[in-house]
Amino acid sequence: MRLWIRNPLAILAEDAEGGVVVDGTRLVECVPLGGGPSAAVDDVFDASEHVVLPGLVNLHHHFFQTLTRACPPALDKPLFPWLESLYPVWAGLRPDDLALAARVALVELLRSGCTTVSDHHYLFPAGLEEAIDIEAEAVRELGMRAVLTRGSMSLSVDDGGLPPRSVVQTEEAIMADSERLLSRYHERGEGAMLGIALAPCSPFSVTAELMRESAALARREGALLHTHLAETEDETAWCLEHTGRRPVDYLEELGWLGEDVWVAHGIHFDDEEIERLGRAGVGVSHCPSSNMVLASGHCRTLELEAAGSPVGLGVDGSASNDASNLIGEARQALLLQRLHYGADRVGHREALRWATQGGACCLGRTDIGRIAPGLQADLALFRLDEPRFAGAGDPLAALLLCGAQQADRVMIAGSWRLIDGEVPGLDLPALLAAQKTAARALLARAGAGA
Ligand code: ZN
Question: What is the pTM of this model?
Fold first, then answer.
């Protein structure tokens, strides 16, 4: 089945003004301006009203947090007090809650043009041991591409960590589940739809031993590593006090500096640390909204990229964004980075690159993130027919400057997963109603009612 997506209003690709041809799960041809496909096609989609992007890649999220958006006990706090106010609420998370939260997060991402999503799930209270299996089912139902990271926390307040004892696991349980998930779900190579990565939550929530064992297992299995790093000054102080090292030194000592690692936030690095991270090829998920909401600081994206680190975007969990809108996040990245570096150094092309190719690179993927022959057919199509776009000149710039929120069509591995802004077959009002009920019950169980 060959489909020609014909004559787009604009497209983020070289020599493809006439559109692209999709065959099966792949892009097979870019059509130059005024041209046509080199061979017969079975179907044509008129894209003359659409701006076409490579499918967006989300590098960092916590799906379960869609249940605690704008959560009263956590409002207006920086990271550590924010976490301490939310852990008791999250401790009540049950399997049905996570199933609903994951679906809401994924649908929101899909509607915003996202085709590949990574989630960092680190919360495994008793009864929720199969959290990653629940997420895998939600991802497959929606036909999205994903890297689900098996998070972990083993240091509770009793051991000098932050989380309560009820949400941490033993290191034996964490490693056994990591092995199980890798053997059950982890796909490798071109076109992989579902991958597993190992992701101790942060240096302040696990032991050095667990960091080392996770790295060894991931490398044996050809999987990636992920963690939160250098998000706040509090984290640097914690690392200095408990390990005698700054976060990057500590990570290096644990064998975690490599191109199979991407970290979330990556804010509080000095110049020498940026050079070291870049030489090692460590990827960074920039999370601009979360960094602004928690006032964590500014990620030095341009220095990181110049040093050799791939940079992509993450919406981060919905308790600190509080949205899961990736095209919206690209606008946030544009504005925040421009404020820091100047209007002539960060434009819409940089922000769109982070949201696509940069993210793919952090995930070690060369088969997604761009529009070119041979790559996977992951595409996001936006219409510019809302009032916010009226009078816009450059269609690609308009997506971010006018603030696009919603894709019209999304294709993943050659299949339309969003049509006319809707997920085919999904009863969205019913999903939202069920998730809202679950969110209220979760707060009520913790005695933190809205
Ligand atoms: Zn996070």
Answer: 0.97
Q: What is the largest CA-CA distance in the chain?
A: 68
Span from the CA of 13 to the centroid of ligand 1 (angstroms): 31
pLDDT band at 450 (very low <50, low <70, confident <90, very high): very low
The rounded percent of the chain whose pLDDT value lies above 90 is: 93
| Ligand 1 mean position, distance from CA 15 (Å) | 38
- Helices 131-142 and 95-111 pack at an angle, to 10 degrees, of 40
Q: Which residue has the tokens 């809302």?
A: 386
User: Is residue 240 located within the same domain as residue 297?
Assistant: yes
User: How many A from CA of 407 to the centre of ligand 1?
Assistant: 25
> 87 C-alpha to center of ligand 1: Å?
14
In tens, the pLDDT along 33-54 reads 999 999 999 999 999 999 999 9
Q: How far is the CA of 349 from the centre of ligand 1 (A)?
A: 25
SS3 content of the chain, % helix, strand, coil (to 5): 40, 20, 40
Same domain? For 26 and 159 the reply is no
How far is ligand 1, taken at its centre, from the CA of residue 234, in Å? 15
- Distance (angstroms) between ligand 1 centre and the Cα of 313 equals 12
Give the number of domains in the chain. Answer: 2
